[in-house]
Amino acid sequence: DTAVSQTPKYLVTQMGNDKSIKCEQNLGHDTMYWYKQDSKKFLKIMFSYNNKELIINETVPNRFSPKSPDKAHLNLHINSLELGDSAVYFCASSLQGGGIQYFGAGTRLSVL
Amino acid sequence: GQQLNQSPQSMFIQEGEDVSMNCTSSSIFNTWLWYKQDPGEGPVLLIALYKAGELTSNGRLTAQFGITRKDSFLNISASIPSDVGIYFCAGQLLGNNNDMRFGAGTRLTVKP
Question: Which residues of A touch B108 (CB under 8 A)?
């Protein structure tokens, strides 16, 4: 079974649309994360979240919002998509905040 | 901002050669991690280091946690074509359990 799974793997959409990426972990971890990887492969943390605390990277536009229906899921909603949002988005989880992070396979978002 | 300096940015080597890459910082870390990312996949943990001076091996890979806690290196011996990928260092800042920083990555190409 895949430990951290994200869907979809590929997402192609038009500017201005609203889209969501789903993430689920079956590791029993307490903390989940979203990262953005740009074309230069730099990994940038967007959010970290457990059931007590949401930590937001202040550089992330408020068009991006994480939503967690339960401890095993952290979905990423993006409103009013822009060209610059095109990137690969990775979900990750760890047992505790700051522990070893396990990554999903990524969602490649292309905004046209 | 980015607090980890990872070098080199890229390496082109011949199969069978040894490889060395490192991460340095002006900050003190209490955990160092090394990840590998294959094309189209998420980063996968290779080695985790928890103590200053710790030297840990995983097959042909060896990593060390620097004595000053401000650096770490990863060595790959006798490289093979499947070593191709991007290698990331990651460090958890001392005193900040939620703050894991990633290096910019080292892109490794191995020529048969």
Answer: none
List residues bridging with A6 in a β-sheet. A23
Question: Looking at residue A16, what is its pLDDT?
Answer: 97
Asked if B44 has any chain A CB less than 8 Å from its own CB, the reply is yes
β-sheet bridge partners, residue B106: B87
Q: Name the phi and psi angles at B82, rounded to 5.
A: -75, 0
Residues whose CB is less than 8 angstroms from the CB of residue A58 and which lie 6 or more positions away in sequence, other chains included:
none
pLDDT surpassing 50 at residue B103:
yes
User: What average pLDDT score do residues B29-48 get?
Assistant: 94
Residues 6+ apart with CB under 8 A from B1: none
Mean of the pLDDT values across residues A16-24?
97
**What span, in angstroms and rounded, lies between the C-alpha atoms of A42 and A16?**
25
Contact at CB, A103 and B42, closer than 8 angstroms: yes
- Cα(A34)–Cα(B56) distance, integer angstroms: 29
